[in-house]
């Protein structure tokens, strides 16, 4: 039997080749050489093995933690389905109108092919004659193998060389695959117009149904469209589409696939297409309020080794950590503080769940809509570092460093020099002293570290740097989660990282938070502390599965112990007074009815162009930054809403803290109040006490 099939295959190809040579009147040797040259000129030359594997571009679906889709990533909107999920009516309709001898020939119909070749060679209108198997080959070259315009043009070129090439591959396909497989692959790859590739996409786009549920009139409409999706477009040309559909129905009746009565019923049926035919928006710009989170998912997976092409065509299902309820409440909080179209003022908010083995991102929002339209932003506002800094939030790193060095504990009393303090390490680029000022002029000359973290005197922490040294503080920031400090300061080759630049230049201003800062990383810093010092990457991924549902491994950084658990627990307690009377966020906490124990810190940059807040409970950690996101930042005055002004009044305890407390309070809702881990006696006092 195998020998007979091979002989039949050779006979068909010999017949087609003989006709081609006769039509072209080529000498035998020269003709074959010319044909070979034509085939290779710009064509893909698909390997039979690739064609037989039959992998087609498939939509990647990004979902929230519940499995609800939030975005679709694709170049071609296609969802391949198995034969069992395609209705019998659809299979019968495409065979009836495109290749009624499909189950009889061996991949090439010699009579039809000869007719098409003769007409093509004579300059007449291109005839049919291509079998479904040949069409599958052509569509595979066009939609899968071709990667540039030249290859796509070659895949559909009306040349005799391509016909020979196509016929040979079609016979190979027929020899190795069942008719059912070929028919299924064809229906999964062909274009139906309006951005719908494959029968499943077409069923959704035109009828809001599935491929398995397609009725006779619906299947006939789609089958009739493949010849020319534009000419037989049921939206733009309903009369032509109906006439073509009815031709398919008549063919089905003639072949005995349906009864005359069924044919009459199908012919009388309306087209039944949906009012608005469109594929789902492609990419993260179509994800609405989830756009920034979606963009971070893509960035995260690319850094984990996925290519952009894989994500756009791999048909993955990416189940993320996004909590839709938390996301909705977070978005409501930022918009209530800074409405989306507030000029120059952005408000970003990220939430990370603490844990010993995973730090999942539960929400990530900005008041700006993600996108490219006016008033929107395609910059990763919540996760990309903003250049204006986070202010005194960075004092967390100075405190942690001094505690780890054994210099102080959370109960240690530290000096608070008055405003105008001249530190031996706080100088400008020319080596001149820079006076250090405090936001408040009535601070006590000495405070405990816990009180200092709550009241945030600049002079106290700059003086503390004199004992710790600056490089260890930068290292501590990176260990606790400020990983973007490893990024270069510029795009120039060989540029130093931000961290190395701060160390090399001994920038004592680091503790005052003047470096570019990622809101997401800040949220993860407090998550690390609440996780007893265990750092894990802020991950947006729960799982990735392929087209068949098999898990796909994701290369993620392992968790690591950033600081000793006792130090982290003690520092969390040292940060627990910010929302209490005298703390910089006390008014915001009171206004939002906050009553949970939390570790928190505010920050404000020197000329009020940005302000930040980080806060966490053992269940949830978050950070909010309000900043001028325009090309020429100006000071921001707090208000309803905040706005740019000449002098500035924005503090971390204002809009950023209000954003956090409102969102976190709504998200936690009636969840049990969990106390902070107790401090360790080892980190209550230190050598400087």
Automatic annotation (TrEMBL):
Pfam families: Transgly, Transpeptidase. Keywords: Carboxypeptidase, Glycosyltransferase, Hydrolase, Multifunctional enzyme, Protease, Transferase. It catalyses: [GlcNAc-(1->4)-Mur2Ac(oyl-L-Ala-gamma-D-Glu-L-Lys-D-Ala-D-Ala)](n)-di-trans,octa-cis-undecaprenyl diphosphate + beta-D-GlcNAc-(1->4)-Mur2Ac(oyl-L-Ala-gamma-D-Glu-L-Lys-D-Ala-D-Ala)-di-trans,octa-cis-undecaprenyl diphosphate = [GlcNAc-(1->4)-Mur2Ac(oyl-L-Ala-gamma-D-Glu-L-Lys-D-Ala-D-Ala)](n+1)-di-trans,octa-cis-undecaprenyl diphosphate + di-trans,octa-cis-undecaprenyl diphosphate + H(+); Preferential cleavage: (Ac)2-L-Lys-D-Ala-|-D-Ala. Also transpeptidation of peptidyl-alanyl moieties that are N-acyl substituents of D-alanine. InterPro entries: Beta-lactam/transpept-like, Glyco_trans_51, Glycosyltr_51/Transpeptidase, Lysozyme-like_dom_sf, PBP_transglycosylase, PCN-bd_Tpept. Residues 573-598 are annotated as: Disordered. Residues 69-252 form the Glycosyl transferase family domain. Residues 573-583 have a biased composition (Polar residues). Residues 361-626 form the Penicillin-binding protein transpeptidase domain. SUPFAM superfamilies: beta-lactamase/transpeptidase-like, Lysozyme-like. This is Penicillin-binding protein. It comes from Pseudonocardia alaniniphila.
């Amino acid at each position: 039997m195998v020998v007979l099939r091979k002989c039949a295959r050779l006979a068909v190809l010999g017949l087609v080749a003989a006709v081609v040579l006769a039509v072209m009147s080529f000498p035998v040797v020269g003709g074959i050489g010319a044909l070979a040259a034509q085939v290779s000129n710009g064509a893909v030359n698909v390997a039979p093995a690739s064609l037989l594997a039959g992998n087609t571009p498939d939509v990647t679906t990004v979902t929230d933690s519940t499995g609800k889709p939030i975005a679709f990533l694709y170049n071609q909107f296609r969802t391949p389905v198995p034969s069992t999920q395609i209705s019998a009516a659809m299979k019968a309709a495409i065979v009836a109108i495109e290749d009624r001898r499909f189950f009889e020939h061996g991949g090439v119909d010699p009579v039809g092919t000869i007719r098409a070749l003769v007409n093509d060679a004579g300059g007449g209108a291109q005839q049919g004659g291509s079998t479904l198997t040949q069409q599958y080959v052509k569509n595979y070259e066009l939609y899968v193998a071709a990667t540039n315009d030249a290859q796509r043009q070659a895949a559909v070129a009306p040349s005799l060389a391509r016909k020979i090439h196509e016929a040979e591959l079609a016979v190979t396909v027929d020899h190795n695959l069942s008719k059912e497989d070929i028919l299924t692959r064809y229906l999964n790859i062909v274009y139906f117009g309006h951005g719908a590739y494959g029968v499943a996409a077409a069923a959704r786009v035109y009828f809001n149904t599935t491929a398995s549920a397609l009725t006779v009139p619906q299947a006939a409409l789609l089958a009739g469209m493949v010849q020319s999706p534009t000419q037989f477009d049921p939206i733009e040309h309903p009369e032509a589409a109906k006439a073509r559909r009815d031709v398919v129905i008549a063919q089905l009746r003639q072949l005995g696939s349906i009864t005359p009565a069924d044919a009459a019923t199908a012919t009388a049926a309306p087209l039944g297409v949906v009012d608005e035919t469109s594929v789902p928006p492609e990419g993260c710009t179509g994800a609405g309020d989830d756009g920034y989170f979606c963009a971070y998912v893509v960035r995260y997976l690319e850094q984990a080794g996925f290519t952009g092409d894989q994500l756009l065509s791999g048909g993955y299902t990416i189940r993320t950590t996004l909590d839709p309820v938390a996301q909705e409440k977070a978005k409501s909080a930022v918009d209530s503080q800074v409405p989306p179209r507030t000029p120059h003022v952005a408000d970003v908010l990220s939430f990370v769940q603490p844990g010993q083995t995973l730090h999942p991102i539960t929400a990530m929002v900005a008041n700006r809509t993600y996108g490219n339209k006016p008033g929107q932003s395609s910059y990763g506002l919540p996760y990309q570092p903003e250049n204006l800094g986070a202010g005194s939030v960075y004092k967390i790193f100075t405190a942690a460093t001094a505690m780890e060095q054994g210099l102080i504990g959370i109960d240690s009393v530290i000096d608070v020099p008055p405003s105008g303090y001249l530190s031996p390490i706080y100088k400008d680029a020319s080596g001149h002293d820079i006076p250090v000022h405090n936001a408040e002029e009535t601070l006590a000359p000495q405070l405990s570290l816990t009180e200092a973290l709550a009241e945030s005197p600049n002079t106290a922490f700059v003086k503390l740097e004199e004992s710790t040294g600056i490089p260890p503080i930068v290292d501590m920031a990176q260990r606790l989660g400020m990983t973007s400090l490893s990024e270069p300061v510029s795009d120039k080759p060989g540029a130093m990282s931000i961290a190395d630049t701060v160390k090399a230049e001994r920038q004592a201003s680091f503790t005052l938070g003047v470096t570019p800062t990622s809101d997401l990383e800040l949220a993860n810093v407090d998550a690390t502390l609440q996780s007893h010092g265990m750092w894990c990457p802020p991950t947006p991924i729960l799982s990735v599965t392929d087209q068949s549902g098999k898990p796909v491994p994701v290369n993620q950084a392992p968790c690591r112990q950033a600081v000793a658990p006792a130090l982290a627990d003690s520092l969390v307690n040292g940060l627990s007074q910010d929302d209490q009377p005298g703390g910089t966020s006390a008014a915001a906490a009171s206004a939002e009815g906050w009553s949970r124990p939390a570790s928190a810190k505010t920050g404000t940059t020197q000329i009020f162009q940005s302000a930040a807040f980080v806060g966490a409970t053992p269940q949830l950690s978050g950070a909010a930054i309000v900043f001028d996101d325009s090309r020429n930042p100006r000071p921001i005055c707090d208000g309803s809403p905040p706005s740019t002004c000449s002098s500035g009044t924005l503090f971390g305890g204002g809009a950023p803290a209000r954003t956090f407390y409102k969102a976190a309070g709504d998200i936690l809702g009636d969840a049990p109040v969990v106390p902070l881990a107790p401090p360790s006696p080892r980190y209550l006092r230190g050598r400087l006490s």
